[in-house]
Amino acid sequence: MSDFRRNCIERELLIGTFAAIPHPVAIEVIAASGVDFLCIDWEHSQISRERIEDLIRAADVHRVPAMVRVPGHAAEDIAAVLDAGAAGVLVPRISTAEQARSAVRAMRYPPLGARGVGPGRAAAYGYRIPDYLAKANAELVLAIQVETAEGLANIVDIAAVDGVDLIFIGPGDLSVSIDAMGPAGKDKLDAAIRTIVKTALSAGRAVGIFRPTPDDVGTWSAAGISFFLLASDTMYLGAGLTAGVIEAKKH
Ligand code: 3PY
């Protein structure tokens, strides 16, 4: 098993960020920050499928595991990023157990799933297909994202799906979906998050969450969340530069 998957499953504290800038330089800057992993955000960025392989390559140079958040549930997209060498996949908007099972089928080779065999970068362009087939199911992380009212209602069934390593909570979408936005919705949103965490942990899944800042990582890690995606390269660029400009303009 890869260290990354073992650390996910064993609920080691893992800190990463989303990569949304479609250039390997941004990946190298992220990798140099000390993150435990990064997640290339194909869902909410203008990163093209062709570019993903180069971004993963840049992370590999620095030995930082790179997962990819795919744009939807298509098996073809999951296969494409895994063939490019992703260390795992984050599948957004999983709201039913059947959607979770379909993600497992797309992610794993038989007998656990139905992923197709291809001569991609992950298998050394075809030269190491048998080696890759022997280890891929054990090495790659499958994280599914629960972020809808329907997903919250179905969390017991979703968490029970074998082959899912980690349930990742998207608080932004969840807050919109359950009508718990802003400060007025905080208690409702926190209660929903705690329900997902408790159910996922009872089913033996690790739990992750998106946080825009590290401020409450301690609170959520005490609640059992071990995998954190903190903001994104673009958000940190914006926050860092804004703070610098404000400071400079004081003089
Ligand atoms: C959310 O907060 O809904 C997310 O998807 C974070 O990426």
UniProtKB/TrEMBL annotation:
**TM spans (from-to):** none
The positions making up the signal sequence are: none
Keyword Signal listed: no
For whether the record's keyword set contains Cell inner membrane, the answer is: no
Give any GO molecular function from the UniProt entry. Answer: aldehyde-lyase activity
Q: Which UniProt keywords apply?
A: Lyase, Metal-binding
Q: Name one GO cellular component term.
A: cytoplasm
All copies of the HpcH/HpaI aldolase/citrate lyase domain together span 15-235
List the PANTHER family hit by this protein, alphabetically.
Answer: 2-KETO-3-DEOXY-L-RHAMNONATE ALDOLASE, PHOSPHOENOLPYRUVATE CARBOXYLASE FAMILY PROTEIN
Family membership, please give it.
Belongs to the HpcH/HpaI aldolase family.
Q: What is this protein called?
A: 4-hydroxy-2-oxoheptanedioate aldolase
Biological classification of the source: Bacteria, Pseudomonadati, Pseudomonadota, Alphaproteobacteria, Hyphomicrobiales
